[in-house]
Design brief:
Blueprint: H1 3-29, H2 34-56, H3 62-65, H4 68-86, H5 92-126, H6 130-152, H7 164-180, H8 185-206
Helix pairs in contact: 1-2, 1-4, 1-5, 1-6, 2-4, 2-5, 2-6, 5-6, 5-7, 5-8, 6-7, 7-8
């Protein structure tokens, strides 16, 4: 395996683990059973990749041709389950820590998959189509999270949560721009992922949100 291919694979595994942790923890918070925890751990970990492959015409999606990603997400969800069984307390402090872990893992997964998705589109022969590359990158990053939120009965994060999709657009665009400049791909990948993670964490800490329409509640 070439060095660049090995780094991309490592980044994908990192994203799978990050999203599997966030999905499994969310399932536990919603009091789902073991199957629900595993399902919600796997869904965000591979859902975005499936959407990416379908958009690029790569069928069957790669998760079915190389089940290592599903296997890693499965093991991660199982591990999270047993850790939470061991830590039975559900105090305010534990809930806060859980929320922080979900947020961090979600940011890592988003940043990783946005850049990997953009890179996949480039290597699929679409390097001259910046719009497609950036769009595929963002869909890869947010697609699994959208499915996770819909299954759990939440409005997807990208529509309401701390510039979620905007961070993905910035990371994908920045990675593509560095590709156009012919910069080192490993360096470009590191910068792209780091920017997305930084934007997500800063948006959460400073409570950055896009404008909303102020609607007054007419009920008395």
């Amino acid at each position: 395996m070439e060095v660049s291919a090995a780094i991309i694979f490592s980044a994908e595994i990192l994203g799978v683990i990050a999203f599997a942790v966030s999905g499994a923890l969310l399932a536990i918070e919603k009091k789902l059973d073991l199957f629900g925890i595993i399902f919600l751990g796997i869904t965000p970990a591979v859902g975005g990749g499936v959407m990416r492959d379908l958009l690029l015409g790569a069928v069957p999606p790669y998760m079915f041709r190389n089940p290592i990603y599903v296997f890693v997400a499965f093991l991660t969800a199982i591990l999270v389950f047993f850790i939470k069984v061991y830590i039975r307390k559900n105090s305010d402090r534990i809930r806060l820590i859980t929320y922080q872990i979900i947020n961090i893992m979600d940011a890592v997964g988003l940043g990783t998959f946005v850049v990997v998705g953009a890179d996949t589109a480039i290597h699929a022969g679409f390097g001259k189509n910046g719009f497609l590359v950036v769009t595929v990158g963002v869909i890869t990053g947010v697609g699994g999270g959208i499915l996770r939120d819909l299954f759990i009965g939440h409005i997807p994060h990208i529509f309401r949560k701390h510039v979620y999709a905007i961070a993905g657009f910035v990371g994908a665009f920045l990675y593509y721009y560095m590709y156009i400049l012919d910069l080192n791909p490993i360096f470009a990948m590191f910068i792209g992922i780091s920017i997305v993670i930084l934007l997500r964490l800063m948006a959460t800490y400073f409570k950055w949100n896009l404008p909303r329409v102020p609607i007054e509640d007419e009920r008395r």
